[in-house]
Amino acid sequence: MTAALVVTVLVSGGVYLILQRELLRVVLGFILLGHGVNVVIISAGGMANREPALLGQQDRAAMADPLPQAFVLTAIVIAFAITVYLLSLLKAGDADDDGRRAEPDGSGDGDGGPDTAGDTGTADGSAGANGGDR
Amino acid sequence: MTGLEALLIAPIAVPLAASGALILFGIRMTAAARRAVAFSTVVAGTAVAAVLLAATSDGQVIVQRLGGWPDGIAVPLVADAFGTVMLLVTGVLGIACLAYAALNDADGDRAFLPQSLLLLAGVNGAYLTGDLFNLFVFIEVMLVPSYVLIATGRGPDRIAASRLYLTVNLLASTVFLAGLGLVYGVAGTVQLGDLAGAAADDPALAAATAVILLALSVKAALVPVHNWLPRAYGAAPAAVTVLFSGLLTKVGVYALFRIYAVVYDGDPRFLPIILVAALLTMVIGVLGAVGAGGMRTILTFHMVSQIGYIVLGLAIFTPLGLAAAIFFMVQYVLVKAALLMVAGAVEQHAGTGELARLGGLAAHSPAAAVAFAVSALSLAGIPPLSGFVGKLVLVVGAVDAGRIVAALVAIGVSVVTLLSMLKIWNGVFWGDRAPDPGEAGGSAGSTGTVVSLRVPARAVAPALALGGLSLLLGLAAEPLLSLCLVAADGLVDATTYAGAVGG
């Protein structure tokens, strides 16, 4: 029950923040949502067994399921890396994710050839085509 | 067979190692050396895929448990006919894409080669894994470099497109993870072998797995969760779009097929839902393409539409329908890559992809025109090209399964596909030659100028090669089609796969 309540609070907070306009809030929303999901996975291993999963030092019956813990560890690492990258995108453009006013030249790319010389045209096209999507 | 089992790790480990080497030492290497490393890696991966395909083409399943751990604890890598076909087509597309990038100097960006190899490692891993959690990990391995690659564009929309792409995919990944937690909570395992057929018996597990399928639908860009794709892909550099179109959404589709076949055991109760999603995807995608005004925008909308065709095969779930879907997916990856290469080359050399500002390219860029025409006709399903075979078998499969409406929709959407391809053809390749090509050189962004510069043959050489491959697959479809039937049998009767993975 406690776990369910924790997940409820984390996920509703996360969803609320993701629906905001400002990207920083969206990032914070994803952090909350990720934590909520991590609690789901941990609780999938059973809430009753809570002792550390150390073979030879614990009673096996009281030991927590180590597999969901390993899953969550992996998920935290991935989510951390993506959050950092998302923050760098936040720094590269405007705070508002509307994007139409985003800076055309962000900082620090290696210089490629004129590979995207036609992007202006494409961007116009997709803007027109996506008018009805949003 | 021990040698082959050891090979399973190669398609993942080799590109990972090469990518790391390029990140560490690439800055001190010449461009030619970087290309040589990347090419040899992708060619080696393709060769391994061909060897694995030869071994699995009789329906055999090869399993490797990493680290020698016992079943249930080890990370299983599994190769069956379906997975290795996808592995091979990934390799072929990787070679074509690197060739295209090299010929068009699109791989100058320091991020391009290492991140592409990392992406390929993730894609290969997703095709080989036999465990839902590792599917999640490999999809992330594939997505993280794609986040970087999509931001290497130059357009005004690149940051906005990157943010959209990243947040949508991060949300889908989070939903995937939640589904994993639920599956583990219900079944106590996330290994595909142990989950075989479980969702058909247990409604709770069926609901939990459906959360994962929902997340995969976002990644596959199925309607109604497709809106991110045209907007995000349109702003990426051309070479990156080529890579993405053949790899990212296909991994989502592959995982849908695999999970539905193994975990649900092809349960007919849920097939109508997939059918509706597939038909909507086909129709809405193609209507978006008709309404779009840029070459690459039209093509990205087609991506959505064609995914509907592939998923239609899953909704039919007969050996013939699934074989048609796999055949269609293989040829579609190649054809769509060729189309996007031509569109990218036109954008680069003519300065724009807007149909309204192009014209008469066929007169002075015959190579680009031929490459486009062959691939476009194949996409629309005109004989004798590979798209025709794929669609024909798919329609026959649908009629066989009693899905007459689906077959009619598939044919109707083909006609509209042809229509929008003709729109590109008329706008870009036919018509009057642009009056003043000299002035067009630096006017990529200016409006109202008709620009038309020559697209050199070497810029579209990989597209021509892929078009030739499409012709070959259309004229001699039998070998691939019988291979797809083997793969489809492995999906319809998943016991061999599940037995091998579960040990």
TrEMBL record, chain A:
Membrane topology category: Multi-pass membrane protein
Presence of keyword Membrane: yes
Annotated TM spans: 27-49, 70-90
Pfam families referenced in this protein's UniProt entry, alphabetically: Oxidored_q2
Bias kind Low complexity: ranges: 116-127
Keyword tags: Cell membrane, Membrane, Transmembrane, Transmembrane helix
Location(s), subcellular: Cell membrane
Ranges for region Disordered: 95-134
PANTHER family referenced in this protein's UniProt entry, alphabetically: ANTIPORTER SUBUNIT MNHC2-RELATED (PTHR34583)
Family the UniProt entry places it in: Belongs to the CPA3 antiporters (TC 2.A.63) subunit C family.
Protein name: Cation:proton antiporter subunit C
From TrEMBL, chain B:
Record-linked InterPro entries: CPA3_Na-H_Antiporter_D, NADH_UbQ_OxRdtase, ND/Mrp_TM
TM spans (from-to): 6-25, 37-57, 77-103, 110-127, 133-152, 164-184, 204-223, 235-257, 269-290, 358-382, 402-425
Keyword Kinase: no
Localization terms from the record: Cell membrane; Membrane
Family statement drawn from the similarity comment of this UniProt entry: Belongs to the CPA3 antiporters (TC 2.A.63) subunit D family.
PANTHER family named among the record's database cross-references: NA(+)_H(+) ANTIPORTER SUBUNIT D1, NADH DEHYDROGENASE
Protein name, as recorded: Proton-conducting transporter membrane subunit
Keyword terms of this UniProt record: Cell membrane, Membrane, Transmembrane, Transmembrane helix
Pfam families: Proton_antipo_M (PF00361)
Top-level taxon: Bacteria
The organism of origin for this protein: Pseudonocardia nematodicida
Membrane topology listed for this record: Multi-pass membrane protein
Stretches assigned to the NADH:quinone oxidoreductase/Mrp antiporter transmembrane domain: 130-415
